Amino acid sequence: MAELRYRRATEADLSAIVALLADDVLGASRESASSGVDAPYRTAFAEIDADPNQFLCVVEDGGEIVGTLQLTFIPGLSRNGAKRGQIEAVRIARDRRGEKLGEAMFAWVIDECRARGCALIQLTTDKSRPDAHRFYDRLGFEPSHVGYKLKL
Fold it and tell me: pTM here?
């Protein structure tokens, strides 16, 4: 593994990001990577890119995109006005899994959240992802809450 590069995604990265999102069991049922990057992805990207509290990250190794995640900085009143880092859509290229890229990505996330003054970092993970749960446990994250979603 060469030195990883973490950078803000550009619109040119959308195809690679969507392909990463679609390349797992859950993602394959939720994403439409086979049809290319259509308007909903481009609209979402534009909104994310315009928001200073959003960081859509791509991780490069030797110029190749090998991972992605979305990091949101959430100001809040609770916990004495604490800011939170919210991690979403973590993916690593299938052929690069098992190389500790996830650990490197989360070390970067933790540093970014500290630099932005976050008091805590949170994430949600699907109940059907036991490997992800073990990974987050190993990194020191605690399953402290129950999450709920309402599909609209």
Answer: 0.91
